[in-house]
Amino acid sequence: MRKKELKVKFSPAFIVNSDRLTDHSNFNEPEESKRHIPSWYRKLSKFHKSNSISKLHPINDRGTDGSAASTKLCMPFFDALTAGYMYTLDYDLHVSQDKNGFPVLSWEGDNMIVDKRLMIDVPVPTQHHPMHYGWKVNWYSETPKGYSLLVTHPLNRHDLPFTTMSGIIDSDLWHTPVFTSFFLKRNFIGIIPKGTPIFQMIPIKREDWSLEIDYSNENIEQNQIKDEKRRSLIYAYYKNVIWQRKQYRGKI
Asked: Is a pLDDT exceeding 50 seen at residue 61?
């Protein structure tokens, strides 16, 4: 029996089919993160420089830990890349610099895609310009009761020429688009293409938690048994035995 799916709803913060506003087709709809897996990840081999198991080179007494399996077989990394939904850039964003080395941003379109704050009240990420920008959000977001949205820089995407700040929005109660801060990397001059993922939105359930530290021998023994089970496969034990598929479907 298929379990009931939860739904995150996005609705436009602009007037659709109105002569009073620029053509709404210029606004990209949020999409599933799995549509934005980067090419460098797709090109990774399963093992060190190869997809051949002959390149695995396992260390006999360590099982999975000693193999030359690559990040391509790390399912937690994959789950981070593909979790939730992506907000993408509506136009090509041109980045140049003025005579003082400060960034100059421009785009060929009537709709605002970037705003700027008048102050910097958070630490500037290393090797980024001390200019506090914000992505212009043109969509309301709504989650089921008891669920929030984690809004963050696209996970594991350190190759992007900017860093988006993170926040958690109680989007079951507050649907209004918010100012999403970001900083530009100092060494970037060029074009950030239309469709580039600029932040990731992951629904999370609000629950109360407490911290427990367990030093008991019973717990230590149980963890040692789990460690030993990893040796039953020469590689990809987590992927083949532990991993649970996550579903973030697109629009119906």
From this structure: no
